[in-house]
Amino acid sequence: MGLYSCLTRFAAAAAAALIVGAPAIVCAQQPSVFSFLAAGTGLQLGGPALAPEIRVAPNDLPGVKRVANDLAADFGRVLGVNGTVVVADWSATVSTSGSKPIILLGTVGQSSLIDNLAASKKLDTAALANKWETFSYQVVSKPWDSRDAILVIAGSDMRGAVFGAYDVAEQIGVSPWHYWADVPPTKRQYIWASDLVHTEGPPSVKFRGIFLNDEAPGLTGWGGKKFTKSQYGSPFVTDFYKNIFDLVLRLKGNYVWPAMWSSMFYLDDAKNGPTANEYGIFMGTSHHEPMARADKEQGKFLSGSWDWGSNKANVKTFMETGVTRAKNWTTIYTLGMRGSGDAASPTLTSSALQDVIQWQQSTLTRVIGKPLSDIPQAWVMYKVCRPSFGVNPCLSSLSNTRL
User: Fold this and answer.
1) pLDDT higher than 80, residue 385
2) For the chain, what is the mean pLDDT?
């Protein structure tokens, strides 16, 4: 698919599809690298009882090793026989013998397999270097002496490699909606890769994703029947979110606001945060849940009222705890503040709101230990925030924040 002509439509399409089914999105198409005839040409990746070996380097990132297993399973969905994942360094790979097709999957600068191919002038990674979420895949001829050709999927970073793997999966016949809309795979007897080079990226919209908003009763009721509820009664545990993350990444997104009506993402399942980080998903929180803490955490863990004027010390402790908890994971920190339960605050003035945001930003730099420009932040100027600009504009402190 033509990824980056579609990104601005990603969030609306994904959110709508979770409710009414997969929408049609018309995107610019590049010529496909793959063909499916018995008498095909190029590199054969699949056939009767034949599926590829997918090789990743031991030094590559965890998310790349994870998606290699997804790609192996996707070949199985299409061919009826799964691919095989092999974690191996360069010396073990070049000494490989056998007739199975090989796919090398990896991240530029993180994978010894990709970097050795580039160093030997077999693979040009110039189009990927220092790019955000960019990938390419292509057939490489004579990558080493004992192998005629391989398919290489290379990413500029972890999500670039993940997007490349999922793009190959979609091209051979696995829909991003295989779980959420029960879209069946397109069955193939043969899969061939041509000598075309497919490159996509970087995206025109840096952060792209969905908000599981107004999830009750529909999604909550369904989830309660499908997944074991957390100690707090939420069905939105890691087994649920793995399917959300799979969809978002297959649609080449990277950002999720989790369900929040009766849920607490980081507490409902202790594995939720680390799993999102492994997948490469930026987790955020909704417009009235600052500093990576859920609204429902306030009633359980905040001492005193959710009021900046009368309970500032406890509110600060509450917010800082959220930053400390999420600081080692891919997180976009929501800034600002509203009243309790997503209501307008009767005491929060525009000058107090400016004080809130300045304290939040100084806390982010102190706890995370990075410059503010390197910490993703968002401020959602919800309806009650707008009048404050006429009294005391807060925008001067938001130069590093997405609005």
Assistant:
1) no
2) 89
Domain boundary among 133, 164, 198: 198
12 pLDDT exceeds 60? no
β pairing state of 198-200 and 209-211: unpaired
Q: Which two tokens stand for residue 311?
A: 């309970």
Residue 118 has pLDDT above 50, yes or no: yes
Query: Is residue 85 located within the same domain as residue 220?
Result: no
Q: Are 199 and 4 in contact (CB under 8 A)?
A: no
| CA–CA–CA angle 13, 343, 264 (5° rounding) | 60
Which stretch of 34-48, 194-208, 346-360, 363-377 has the lowest confidence by average pLDDT?
346-360
How many Å apart are CA 58 and CA 78, to the nearest integer? 27
What's the total number of domains in the chain? 2
Q: Is the dihedral of CA 210, 215, 218, 223 positive or negative?
A: positive
pLDDT band with cut points at 50, 70 and 90 for residue 15: very low
Q: Is residue 219 situated within a structural domain?
A: yes
Q: Which tokens belong to 225?
A: 């029947």
Task: Indicate if 42 and 176 belong to the same structural domain.
Answer: yes
Token pair belonging to 249: 């990444």
Q: For residue 9, name the pLDDT band (cuts at 50, 70, 90).
A: very low
